[in-house]
């Protein structure tokens, strides 16, 4: 893939852009595509913990938090307000939070950038509307997604008390699956 004008030596701008767009579409294919269990892998173990900003919202206070929580099994939910399957995931998260919220930390993190019509108040309104009641994080640089090796949304991870990622999942996870994974680290 090269521009003919350079004798075939370099990647053409059109081809580069097509590749970038294609990669984005491929990554977006995980959104709502169903369960994709990505196993335990080493992706998150090398770059966690990540410090994220927290928003003042139901179940959350403004400040920062370390993900995963120190010495506590942690359920990590990466989401976006524009993501339809992320809404569906909130139901399962709420059910599992009700069962284990006193023994495990829960944090939902969006990497959406504020500006251009979206601000913290919009995220808080989405949070209230979808019954969020645990820590709400904001990571506009996407450090947490990168540390987990996430390629789409929603994306879940469960860590044990030592902070090791024991399970990751792209797409919507059922209550039963999420329950089983959280119970395994308690």
UniProtKB/TrEMBL annotation:
MF terms in GO: oxidoreductase activity
Protein name: TlpA family protein disulfide reductase
Cross-referenced InterPro entries: Redoxin, Thioredoxin-like_sf, Thioredoxin_domain, Thioredoxin_ResA/DsbE_sf
Gene3D superfamilies named in the record: Glutaredoxin (3.40.30.10)
Organism for this UniProt entry: Haloplanus rubicundus
PROSITE patterns per record: THIOREDOXIN_2
Domain Thioredoxin: 24-186
